[in-house]
Amino acid sequence: MKFTARQFEFVFPRPALVMGIVNVTPDSFSDGGKFLAPGAAVEHALKLVAQGAEILDIGGESTRPGAAPVSEAEELRRVVPVIEQLAAQTQVPLSIDTMKPVVARAALAAGASIVNDVAASARRDVAMWEVVSEFQAGYIVMHAQGTPQTMQDQPAYNDIIREVGEFFSERLETLLNAAGIAAEQVAFDPGIGFGKTAEHNLQLLAGLGSFTKKRRPLLLGVSRKSFIGKLLGADLENRLPASLACATLAVAAGANLIRTHDVAETVQAVRMAEAILARNHHVD
Questions:
Q1: Percent of the chain with pLDDT over 90
Q2: Phi, psi values for residue 56, rounded to 5°
């Protein structure tokens, strides 16, 4: 199985890719405001690479529950200088975390290689897909119910594993047939916390293995998310252990990419899990 993103190619099976989060926002739930200045964002991103991040995910609009939308112009102002500087200073692939085709195009032109589309579920027009196709970019298809403003109002599913799996299959077919995007450009993200209750998130995490049957790389983003606080009573600063537990179990279930704020800790946890899993076949 391959994942291609412009000039980059990842061939699985291989160690899970750890994707470092770079929020160039004033209001992201975990680190909003810390890296709003381009210089601070670039410095932070390069630190994540030094810690072992193999992809950087740069976002200029918070998608936390209830987040206010950001204008196209403001999002461009935040992310393009950061991507331009990082493209000149690091060799790792850069991902643009955006819902806007214009921002995706500008980011790819500035040196990004992947579009991380949290609005993939709601997308009804082909503008984003045309950008991905034109640049031969990697494309992360994330499942969500509703928008950041509404998604946690009353999320409901009959069978969340089946419904998310059906969305992945339907969307992959659309991308291949209607958008001219190759299967190798596509990865899936079940969208933990995006239009899901804590129980839905647990069901998704327990059922991750079913999504690996789609033969596309699976990305998991659980880092510091609010359902951890709801389940365990842990405030934002104390959710790393639970985030690592989710990451290691996800890798055991076949996840290929782990998106995290805490790169050094996640790399260490995931590599240990992989070392143990590699010995599984020796056990009677």
A1: 82
A2: -115, 130
Helices 240-253, 198-206: axis angle to 10 degrees equals 40
The yes-or-no verdict on residue 277 having pLDDT over 60 is: yes
Tens of pLDDT along 218-260? 999 999 999 999 999 999 999 999 999 999 999 999 999 999 9
Which tokens belong to 47? 């630190």
End-to-end CA, the chain:
29
DSSP E strand stretches across 125-185 = 138-142
258 and 220 Cβ atoms separated by less than 8 Å = yes
Range of the domain at 29: 14-276
Domain assignment present for 151? yes
* CATH classification of the domain holding 114: 3.20.20.20
Active-site positions read 225, 259
Residues 6 or more apart from 198 whose CB is under 8 A from it? 227, 230, 231
Tokens found for residue 86? 């990082």
- What backbone torsions phi and psi does residue 141 show, to the nearest 5 degrees? -95, 110
**Residues linked to residue 4 through DSSP beta bridges, in sequence order:** 9
